[in-house]
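Researcher: I'd like a candidate sequence for this fold, 196 residues long. If you have to choose between options at a position, lean toward the conservative one.
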């Protein structure tokens, strides 16, 4: 009798878990990345990242008027063997780097900018247009209507307002696959968003 009761409780909790996961999947959109680039050279021999910096390539006119110039910058990641990789955006790094590389770059960036507050980082009027999970690096990204791109580590907590969290849930999380990481992220965002 006890064994039958124990099995019933176990089956009930599994059913509840399956139902909760099905509910979380309502906030998930699967979008496989068929153009994902695999860099086999990095997979063969991996050297640790020792430096991250930004290089200015020059300037270009910001508008039709030549007196307003905009700098053209690229991010450079340098490995211990001297190999350099150039990236225009962090989004392009997320599809190539693994979590170890991302942690190394994150630490280098944080060391460089630890006392600086990013310009135009005003959370009041964010209108979120996309929310995407990069499973290989454990990063989720939100993009605002003003093209502000914010990359966040899945396991870290960020001071996002309830309105922003609700926008994220309304848009649904875009992921390459239905994964535990995606469901856990949605569960966490829902918990914080609906917290009284």
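Model: Candidate sequence:
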């Amino acid at each position: 009798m006890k064994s039958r009761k124990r099995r019933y409780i176990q089956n009930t909790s599994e059913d509840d878990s399956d139902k909760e996961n099905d509910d979380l999947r309502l906030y998930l959109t699967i979008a496989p990345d068929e153009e994902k680039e695999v860099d086999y050279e990095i997979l063969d021999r991996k050297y640790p990242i020792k430096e991250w910096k930004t290089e200015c390539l020059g300037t270009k006119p910001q508008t039709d008027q030549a007196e307003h110039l905009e700098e053209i910058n690229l991010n450079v990641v340098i490995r211990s063997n001297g190999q350099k990789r150039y990236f225009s955006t962090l989004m392009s790094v997320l599809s190539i780097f693994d979590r170890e590389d991302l942690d190394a770059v994150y630490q280098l960036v944080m060391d460089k900018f630890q006392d600086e507050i990013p310009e135009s980082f005003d959370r009041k009027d964010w209108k979120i247009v996309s929310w995407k999970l990069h499973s290989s690096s454990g990063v989720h990204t939100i993009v605002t209507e003003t093209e502000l791109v914010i990359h966040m580590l899945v396991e870290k907590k960020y001071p996002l307002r309830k309105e922003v969290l609700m926008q994220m849930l309304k848009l649904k999380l875009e992921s390459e696959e239905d994964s535990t990481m995606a469901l856990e992220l949605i569960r966490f965002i829902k918990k914080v968003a609906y917290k009284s």
